[in-house]
């Protein structure tokens, strides 16, 4: 399948077919999940975050040709304007239905802004190896705040890769060797042989989202457009089987800043408390 086909687009309420597609393919698109007012609220919050970057904010394009590729994490912990839109029961229920979870907590956010002309790609990777967690009930809801196309850097997913039973070593978004885990297999060179992989991708309008499992291989090309920003806010949600864990190769925000937010966390602890609120429970 080519990366431009879009067979599993859906709107709320989620159909059984959409849930089946997510669990089989590891990624789906949902249209209009965030309304126009929510999009504008998030755009304003993103402007604030870029003007007030956190300690772990990075320009992943630093040293490369072209415009900025800005990244920051845990942005909702520093600006309360994010919370009403993204830390809420509605999104928790969507995540819970897709994951088959009985309860859902908000884990953290990741702001990723590719400015027009940014030559920096997002390297192919799985999410879970970067994060201090064990378990399978974890997904990302990637919110589009601008029109997204292949030309502006739409995320691509390797269909079914969440079910391969493999964890790949993390790749630095800056293209350096900051993240190392020699116990994990190096991921395949997908761009070198794209025809060998079944790729999914979607053009998105503002307020649309792409949802993927934390073990689904994904990446994104450069923003080749002259005028279109690609502001994306990735929201992470976890189910009841997720526990705190540690491994080599985790980036500093997932160790340093997380330890500031929740210094009490020990191996095998459940994530809970103020910064990991329960959003939805099947029995409520």
Structure description:
This protein is of the alpha+beta class and about 280 residues long. It has a single domain (about 10-275), classed as Jelly Rolls. The chain contains five helices and 15 strands. It has helices at about 15-25, 35-50, 85, 90-100, 255-260; strands at about 10, 25-30, 60, 70-75, 105-115, 120-125, 135, 140-145, 155-160, 200, 210-215, 220, 230-240, 245, 280. The strands form three sheets. Strands 1, 2, 3, 4, 5, 8, 11, 13 and 15 form a nine-stranded mixed beta sheet that branches. The longest helix is centred in the N-terminal third of the chain and has 16 residues, at about 35-50.
3D shape = globular
Integer-rounded radius of gyration: 17 Å
Please trace the helix and strand order, writing H or E for each element. EHEHEEHHEEEEEEEEEEHE
Estimate the helix proportion, in percent. 10-25%
First-residue to last-residue Cα separation: 40 Å
In the predicted model, the low-confidence regions spanning at least 5 consecutive residues are none
- The number of distinct structural domains comes to 1
CATH class: Mainly Beta
By helix and strand content, what is the structural category?
Answer: alpha+beta
Share in β-strands? 15-25%
For this structure, the CATH topology is Jelly Rolls
CATH superfamily: q2cbj1_9rhob like domain
Question: Sheet with the most strands?
Answer: 9 strands, mixed
Number of strands: 15
Number of helices: 5
CATH architecture classification: Sandwich
Q: What would the average pLDDT be, to the nearest integer?
A: 92
């Amino acid at each position: 399948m080519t990366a431009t086909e879009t067979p599993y687009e859906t709107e709320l309420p989620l159909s059984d077919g959409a849930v089946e597609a997510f669990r089989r393919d590891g990624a789906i698109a949902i249209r209009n999940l965030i309304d126009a007012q929510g999009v504008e609220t998030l755009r304003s919050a993103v402007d604030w975050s870029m003007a007030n970057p956190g300690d772990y904010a990075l320009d992943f394009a630093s040293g490369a040709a072209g415009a900025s590729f800005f990244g920051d994490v845990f942005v909702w912990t520093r600006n309360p304007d994010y919370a009403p839109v993204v830390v809420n029961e509605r999104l928790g229920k969507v995540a819970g239905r897709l994951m088959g979870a009985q309860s859902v907590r908000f884990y953290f956010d990741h702001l990723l802004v590719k400015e027009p002309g940014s030559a920096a790609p997002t390297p192919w990777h799985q999410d879970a190896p970067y994060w201090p967690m064990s378990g399978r009930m974890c997904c990302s809801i990637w919110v589009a705040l601008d029109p997204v196309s292949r030309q502006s850097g739409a995320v691509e997913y390797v269909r079914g890769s969440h079910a391969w039973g493999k964890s790949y070593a993390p790749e630095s978004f800056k293209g350096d060797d900051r993240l190392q885990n020699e116990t994990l297999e190096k991921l395949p060179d997908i761009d070198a042989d794209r025809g060998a992989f079944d790729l999914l991708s979607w053009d998105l309008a503002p307020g649309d989202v792409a949802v993927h499992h934390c073990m689904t291989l994904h990446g994104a090309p450069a923003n080749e457009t002259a005028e279109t920003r690609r502001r994306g806010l990735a929201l992470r949600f976890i189910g009841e089987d997720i526990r705190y864990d540690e491994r080599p190769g985790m980036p500093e925000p997932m160790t340093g800043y997380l330890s500031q937010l929740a210094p009490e966390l020990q191996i095998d602890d459940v994530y809970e408390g103020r910064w990991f609120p329960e959003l939805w429970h099947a029995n409520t």
